[in-house]
Amino acid sequence: MTQVDFYILPSADPLARLDFACKLTEKAWRMGHRIYLHCSDAAQREELDARLWRFKGESFVPHGPAETEPESLVVLGLGDSCGNHQDLLVNLDLKVPAFAKAFARVAEVVVEDPAIRQAARESFRFYREQGYSLQDHRLQRL
């Protein structure tokens, strides 16, 4: 059964989700995981791509778009397909993608923005009703 982790950030800035996604991705990639970063739209994906390039001066996380680099260890995707990825899903969309059940782990990143918190509550209810193993992590600082 898929493990779902909710990371609750002490920020109201929606861009803090992308910064945290970069940190989480780097850590998981260094541990040997394959990561699928599910974005809500092309603008969010472009911003996340830019942040992955510059978020930490001394490190680099190789990544690419899911459509052109599906076998990369770290991909940024949109839409209804996650390709062959089944390890870690970092969901940055406001709804649970239909393919979430294919992953061993799902990370939901939440900030104090009202729309994002409400979407996270709905996602939490969905995961709970489906019987997923749930864990929340309340972060003190970024």
UniProtKB/TrEMBL annotation:
GO terms for molecular function: DNA binding; DNA-directed DNA polymerase activity. The lineage of its organism: Bacteria, Pseudomonadati, Pseudomonadota, Gammaproteobacteria, Pseudomonadales. It comes from the Bacteria. InterPro entries: DNA_pol3_chi, PolIII_chi_sf. This is DNA polymerase III subunit chi. It holds the Pfam family DNA_pol3_chi. Signal peptide: none annotated. It comes from Pseudomonas libanensis. One of its GO terms (biological process) is positive regulation of DNA-templated DNA replication initiation.
